[in-house]
Amino acid sequence: MYAHQIMARKVLSTTPDSAILDAANIILQHRVSGLPVVDPDGTLVGIITEGDFLHRSEIGTGRKRNWLMTFILGPGKWAEDYVLEHGRKVSEIMTREPVTVAEDAPLTTVVGLMEKNNVKRLPVVRDGKLVGIITRSDLLRTVASLARNVPAPTENDDQIRRRILDEIEQNAWCPLGLSVIVRDGIAHLSGVITESRFRNAAIVAAENVPGVREVHDHLCWGDSFSGFYLKSPDDQELEKQVH
């Protein structure tokens, strides 16, 4: 399997000139660990994550000054830390040149990059432009393991996947971070919904795509304010069987 076969195409993002407060609110409301930062033409220029908000002057968690290190490294590092702790724009605290992956990267490469760089979200790029994102999850690790032993999706599976995405993404009820995997005509839907009616609509949309034999529901319900979420009924039932 390859990156383009599991990535979410609709990606929450922010811009370099956005206020960090706005970026923080998006992260909190949508329960994501970070946001790609893109310029007006869609080029990926950085990424901002929860970790970038740990050392902030507002909450008194700025980095402690080590005078010996300051003497060795000079005042430049001190100035850099000051910007990270007091910056007001996304561009001032974001990580530049984030780890990315190409659309045609094998899934084993994707998992390897995540583990090596200890990142939870991996932007997918084409000629420097953001085209999708892959998040770390148990499903990703499982699929990566299976990919070594199970035949890759056929060309027909890829066509079915694209039709499902096209059908669902055009609607206002499209799940956040929608990811679709199709193997032998069996579709797996993942993402976050805020209403049970969204789940039903997504499943029906997938079922009506020609070539789909079966739909497996991995859509979790999430509350953007409390952060509470529930796994899909199918996944809850599977966990009971496992335990």
What are the SSEs and their pairings?
Elements: H1 20-30, E1 34-38, E2 44-49, H2 67-73, H3 75-86, H4 90-93, E3 95-96, E4 101-102, H5 107-117, E5 121-126, E6 129-135, H6 138-146, H7 155-169, E7 176-183, E8 186-193, H8 196-207, E9 214-222, E10 229-230, H9 233-242
Parallel strand pairs: 4-5, 8-9
Antiparallel strand pairs: 1-2, 2-3, 5-6, 7-8, 9-10
Strand-residue proportion: 15-25%
End-to-end separation in angstroms reads 29 Å
Count of alpha and pi helical runs: 9
* Element-by-element helix/strand order: HEEHHHEEHEEHHEEHEEH
Strand order of the largest sheet: 7-8-9-10
Q: The biggest beta sheet, please? A: 4 strands, mixed
Low-confidence stretches: none
Portion in helices: 25-40%
SS-based structural class? alpha+beta
- Rg over alpha carbons: 20 Å
Bulk shape = elongated
| Count of DSSP strands | 10
> Whole-number average pLDDT?
82
Short description:
This protein has 243 residues and is of the alpha+beta class.
Describe the protein in words.
The protein has 243 residues and is α+β, with helices and mostly antiparallel strands. The chain has helices at residues 20-30, 67-73, 75-86, 90-93, 107-117, 138-146, 155-169, 196-207, 233-242; strands spanning 34-38, 44-49, 95-96, 101-102, 121-126, 129-135, 176-183, 186-193, 214-222, 229-230. The strands form 3 sheets. It has a 4-stranded mixed beta sheet. Strands 1-2-3 form a 3-stranded antiparallel beta sheet. Strands 4-5-6 form a 3-stranded mixed beta sheet. Helix 7 packs across helix 8.
Jot down its keywords.
243 residues, alpha+beta, four-stranded mixed β-sheet, three-stranded antiparallel β-sheet, 9 helices
